[in-house]
Request: fold
Amino acid sequence: MPVLSIIACGMLEDELVHVLSRDCGIRQLIVVENRNSSGFLRKLRSGNHIPRTVSLDRVPMLLNSGFNPDFNSISKVLVKFPFLGKVYKKIESKKIRSKAVKKVDVVVNLLRLGLHADLELLKSEVYKNIREMAAFSDGILIFYGTCGHVLGDLEKDFIDIECPLFFLKDRDGETVEDCISAALGGNDAYARAMLEYRGKGTIYLTPMWASSWKSLEKESGSKDFNYRYLKNPGYCLAAKINTGIPYKSDFYQNVQEFALTFGMKIIDIKGSAEIAEQSYLAAMEAIVRKP
Reply:
């Protein structure tokens, strides 16, 4: 059974839940259990997958031991009940892959928020997990941008492993720079946004950024969300990025609190989930075609 592993930035949690919840070709979904996974698991369980959780060192054993039925199997029984049948049909209409596609096991390792505050630590963590997960994977999707270009040489640095790596790429085939570039639709879209608001200090907010800035400032000391840094009057805009993914209702409230705290005006920017969707599909298609 093909295995697609995903090493993901916590800031891209919503995008990852989005693509996984719409995929009917997953045989079993395994989430590496760590202190970063609780919110991610809660979101997945509210969708159409029942993930299994295990420590990273026990993933190979779980892959070899069979699997529990996921929601797709369970729902075929529940569909006999009128209300649950309606729920099932609604979910079926949103599938991202055809039922004819070969089933795949998916292993998700969600790394902690704020690693980008120390780029060398970020690189070390991603590289370490690639090495460990390559042993049981047919491919690994790196659900990160290049993050200050610290992850820009992954293909070259891992040319020695047989497990192919896949990346979040825009329509031009370029790996996105970061999670904001992914949410806006690519590197060119990011550059256009910055050009449009040139001369006005702008902080770009996705739901995960908007809900996490307080803890990030406290834990990492990153200047991205440092109170004194953002109190600089040069920063005047809080850009709320709408990608079309259904978010919790507190997104606007979180952005509003952030804007009030730092004296910024809220602006709305249209984003897209296309990069997450297409990159995930490209990785899936590549591993199911492997001999």
User: Anything to note?
Assistant: The first strand starts at residue 3 and ends at 9. The chain has a mean pLDDT of 85.
